[in-house]
Amino acid sequence: MSVSYGRFTFGKLVAVLKGAAILAIKADSAGRLGRISGTLKVRNKGELVVGRNVSFYAKQFPSSISVAKGAKLRIGNNVFFNYGLDIGCTKSIHIGDDTIIGPMVNLIDTNFHPVDRDDRSMSKPIFVGANVWIGRGVVILPGVTIGNNSVIAAGSVVTRDIPANVLAGGTPAKAIRELNVSDDWIRRTK
Ligand SMILES: CC(C)(COP(=O)(O)OP(=O)(O)OC[C@H]1O[C@@H](n2cnc3c(N)ncnc32)[C@H](O)[C@@H]1OP(=O)(O)O)[C@@H](O)C(=O)NCCC(=O)NCCS
């Protein structure tokens, strides 16, 4: 389709409408959505709650959200997701208000397979606080809590809790330094 008006093409309009409609239909509750572009696949057999002004930019690579039966995914207000997102929620994932999720980020609250015969804890909830910035290519593993305002550097694998107000990075991710933030400061502009 090549109909265009200035820089806004008909294709873009369809993508925005399609993505927004699919998310709104598949969610149990959704606030007024922000911008959705590209391909966002949503499979919801549990509970999906999406806040106000949540945006998905899924152009270079598609994004995928999967919520299993009995699981709960809660996305706060004013959250931005970059492309290549992969959320696998089998128990509980919470993403706080004003959080920014970089490209190719993976949040999974289950290991899907037991490590050995003694492994009884494949699924554990993930909690990402408010005003957090998750860098490109980060993997957040089951059972992790990330405190408010913290930043997870690109390419990190987060295996243990990260406190509030720190830059953390590496594999496994560790706090690197304290951040200069205040309660009223929000990284993502609205
Ligand atoms: C988060 C980020 C911006 C931090 O930058 P910064 O505050 O300037 O940090 P610095 O470069 O001063 O590094 C501080 C320390 O963290 C380490 N560090 C930085 N990035 C790291 C990473 N990705 N993994 C592991 N350690 C990292 C540095 O080596 C340095 O350690 P040192 O003091 O022992 O030398 C940067 O790490 C990053 O991830 N950038 C990519 C952001 C991104 O993904 N953007 C996509 C769009 S959302």
Largest sheet: 12 strands, mixed
Query: What percentage of the residues does DSSP assign to strands (E)?
Result: 35-45%
CATH architecture, please? 3 Solenoid
Total number of distinct structural domains: 1
What do you see in this structure?
With 190 residues, this protein is mostly beta strands. It has one domain: UDP N-Acetylglucosamine Acyltransferase, domain 1. The chain is 9% helix and 38% strand. It has one helix and 20 strands. Strands 4, 6, 8, 9, 11, 12, 14, 15, 17, 18, 19 and 20 form a twelve-stranded mixed sheet that branches. Strands 3-5-7-10-13-16 form a six-stranded parallel sheet, covered by helices on one side. The radius of gyration is 17 Å and the shape is globular. The two termini are 32 Å apart. Coenzyme A (COA) binds next to strand 19.
List the SSEs and their pairings.
Layout: E1 4-5, E2 8-9, H1 10-26, E3 29-30, E4 36-44, E5 47-50, E6 55-67, E7 72-75, E8 80-81, E9 86-89, E10 92-95, E11 100-101, E12 106-108, E13 126-128, E14 133-134, E15 139-140, E16 145-146, E17 151-152, E18 157-158, E19 166-169, E20 174-178
Parallel strand pairs: 3-5, 4-6, 5-7, 6-8, 6-9, 7-10, 8-11, 9-12, 10-13, 11-14, 12-15, 13-16, 14-17, 15-18, 17-19
Antiparallel strand pairs: 1-2, 19-20
Bound molecules: coenzyme A.
